[in-house]
Write a structure and sequence with these properties.
CATH superfamily: Glutaredoxin
Number of helices: 4
Oligomer: single chain
Order of helices and strands: EHEHEHEEH
Pfam family, one: Thioredoxin
Structural class: alpha/beta
Helix content: 25-40%
Shape: globular
GO biological process, one term: cell redox homeostasis
Number of domains: 1
Number of strands: 5
GO cellular component, one term: cytosol
CATH topology: Glutaredoxin
Keywords: Disulfide bond, Electron transport, Redox-active center, Transport
Largest sheet: 5 strands, mixed
CATH architecture: 3-Layer(aba) Sandwich
Strand content: 15-25%
Protein name: Thioredoxin
């Protein structure tokens, strides 16, 4: 299995990399000071590898990218939003075990 990076997006690259993606994209809004975000990181890295080709996983630093964070009304970290065809289809707020995140992703199909 090859490593699939969970790459960072920014206010400047969000439209091209997330809204313009052919694949569904799971975006984690996070911050360096957010403890639960550190817990979710490895889970999202696993999902990126396991669902490569069917799902893209990206992260955006909420503190450094206020435009996108405001646009999607992110009030709590971590917040994960699944985008399909440029539209948000489900939102997960908080740190959850991998099985629960997968369940929410699968329900959003």
């Amino acid at each position: 299995m090859t490593a699939v990076a969970v790459s960072e997006v920014t206010d400047a690259t969000f439209a091209a990399e997330v809204l313009g993606s052919d694949l569904p994209v799971l975006v984690e809004f996070w911050a360096t000071w957010c403890g639960p975000c550190r817990m979710v990181g490895p889970v999202l890295a696993q999902l990126a590898v396991e669902r490569a080709g069917a799902l893209s996983v990206r992260k955006i630093n909420a503190d450094e990218n206020p435009e996108t964070t405001r646009a999607y009304q992110v009030m709590s970290l971590p917040t994960m939003i699944l985008f399909r065809n440029g539209e948000p289809v489900t939102t997960i707020v908080g740190a959850f075990p991998k099985a629960r995140i997968e369940e929410r992703l699968d329900q959003a199909r």
